[in-house]
Each structure stands twice: as C-alpha cells, then as structure tokens.
Amino acid sequence: MFYHVKELQFNARVSKPDPKFARLLLEQFGGSNGELKAAMQYFVQAFTAKNPYPDKYDLLMDIATEEFSHLEIVGATIQMLLGGVNGELKNASEESEIMKLLDGTAAKEDFIHEAIVNPHFGVLTGGGPALTDSNGIPWTAAYVTANGDLTVDLRSNIAAESRAKIVYEYLMKFTDDPSVKETLRFLMTREIAHYQMFEAALATIQPNFPPGILQGDPRYSNLYYNMSSGMDARGPWNEGSSTQLGETWQYVDDPLQQVLETNGLTTLTPTGTDRTEKSVKALNEELSKLRSEEIMSATAEIDAQWSTYDKSGGFINEL
Q1: 161-169 long-range contacts, CB within 8 A, separation 24+
Q2: Which residues of 266-283 are buried (b: 16+ CB within 10 A; e: fewer)?
Q3: Among 46, 153, 254, 292, which one is most buried in terms of CB atoms within 10 A?
C-alpha cells in the first residue's frame, strides 16, 4: 500500500528557467539509468525476495519507494526549469517571456531545432516532463533487470546505482544554477548511499560467489587469455591469486596454441587451484539444497496470504 505525501523529500528549487537543461534532466526521469528504472527494478525484484529473504524484501521496497520520491523530485525540477514554457507555447507573441528568454533569432531557431530532434518534449508534451530520455526515446521495461536470484539482482543494483551516480555527476557540469546543483548533489549522494546498502545486503548472503548456485569448471576459472597483441599488461587480474576463489591466475600467452594442443580445451587439466570436479559437484548439491530449502520453507508458510492484518487495522507481515 502506497501513501503519497505531497511535500518533496528534498526541497527542490531552481533560480531561473532553463529549457535546455530540463531536456537533459529527462535522462533521470525516463532514461535507461534514471529514477523510474531504479524504482521499478527494485520493486519487481522484491517479490521473489519476500519469502526467503524478508529483510531484503524490506530493503528493496524501501529503496524502490525512495526512488519514486526521487522521480518526483526530478519531475518537479524539470517543470520548474520549464517555468512559463507551457503557457508561452500557446502564446505566439514575439514579446512573450519565453521569446525574451530565448533572446534573439538564433536562439529561437535553436529552440525550433530542439523541437525537431525531440518533438515529444518541446511539442507533444506542451512543456512538461515526459517518460522519455533526453532524445525522446520512450521509457521501456527492457531497462529493468530482475533475475530471481538475489545475489545476481543485488549486483545489478550496485551497477545501477553506479551508473545513476555518474549521470548526475555529468549533469552537474551542464548547469550553473546553484539551486539545481544542490538538488542534483542530493540525488547523486543518495545513489552512493544505496550502493553501500546493496553491497552490505549482498555480504549477508553467504556464500554469494559465484552469482547463482552452480560453481565454475576448475579447468577454466583461473585462466587469463592474452587475446590482444602489443603493450601487454600484468596486474592482479592476471597474476597472483583471484579475488574470490583464491586460485592462482594462469597467464596464457598463446591462446591459439593452447586450444590446438588440448582439442579445443576439452583435455585441459586444472592448474593453480585446489578445486576439483568432485568438490565442485559436492558444493553444487549443498548450495542447491540450501537455496531450495530457504525458498520452500518460507513459501509453504505464507504464500497463500501475503499479509496478515491485526485487529487494530494495521498489518503484520508474517515473514
């Protein structure tokens, strides 16, 4: 159940109209890395998390709802940046405020050009936010990633927060309005906070690597292929121990030769690792049983009724 409070989470303000920046800000309204994408992604992911991971369900729903709050902040900021545009588009007077704002023939032509390249924003919406990115490409559910495995979804969310953060960082370079910058800085900072929340949540699920359940083939999990020629680089990604499995990286300087000598890698033997096919099989079975029991035990208890309501009119989620 959602309850809307009309006051914004953050006191968004603008110093003056700026239609061009309003268009850029559409990236965070209806773009692939924007607030609607984040809200819907976490909202959808929460459903499969509710039974086996009720604490993560709470986290995902809380952050999803905050992302809707951020969508409202972005939409309000866009509307304020378009101050007067909606009305002035309906007033063709050369002396109108919007024409003064555009300041001359060249600027008017530029405004017309903006309307041509993104008609949904300047023409079809009549001067209001639209669920598109800055180029008028409509928002799509294809932006949302929800794979039904929380270790995968949380990593997707960490990446989503990273991308949203850098978009706000880039946007701040295109406005000199201190009030708008303050709003963008708030939104950017919340992306940093959410990143850490998802990272901390992932750490509470053990084991959580590799993502999912099945373990990798020990013959191939620590191989680094030198697949490009010239200026070869070495680092912790191809020498020393791997970050998660603790295997010794095997640097393959001539991948083609290895492929030819091992019948397309099928006769390759594991090197630099203690993992074996036997240990991998045992871990696959153990983790599969653990994850299945987590889901089945919770599902059997509460799937028939999502919430349990108390006599006072409130509700208690029996998780």
Answers
A1: 161/38, 161/191, 161/192, 161/194, 161/195, 161/198, 162/191, 162/195, 163/33, 164/28, 164/33, 164/34, 164/35, 164/38, 164/191, 165/191, 165/192, 165/195, 167/27, 167/28, 167/31, 167/33, 167/34, 168/28
A2: eebebeebebeeeebeee
A3: 153
> Global pTM?
0.85
Nearest Cα to 156, choosing from 104, 111, 195, 99? 195
Asked if the model's pLDDT at residue 41 lies above 70, the reply is: yes
- Extract the tokens encoding 103: 């300041």
pLDDT tens, position by position, 59-87: 999 999 999 999 999 999 999 998 765 55
Q: Which of 101, 106, 98 is nearest to 126 (CA)?
A: 98
Residue 293 confidence (pLDDT): 85
* Average confidence score pLDDT of the chain: 87
Close Cβ partners of 281 (under 8 Å, ≥ 6 residues apart): none
Question: Based on the number of CB atoms within 10 Å of its own CB, is 308 exposed (0-12), middle (13-18) or buried (19 or more)?
Answer: exposed
- Separation CA 95–CA 114 (nearest Å): 21
Pick the closest to residue 122 from 26, 207, 31, 39 (CA basis).
26
Sequence-separated (6 or more) residues with CB below 8 Å from residue 315? 307, 308, 309
Contact of 69 with 61, CB cutoff 8 Å: no
Q: Is the pLDDT of residue 49 over 80?
A: yes
Distance in angstroms (rounded) separating the CA atoms of residues 98 and 91: 9
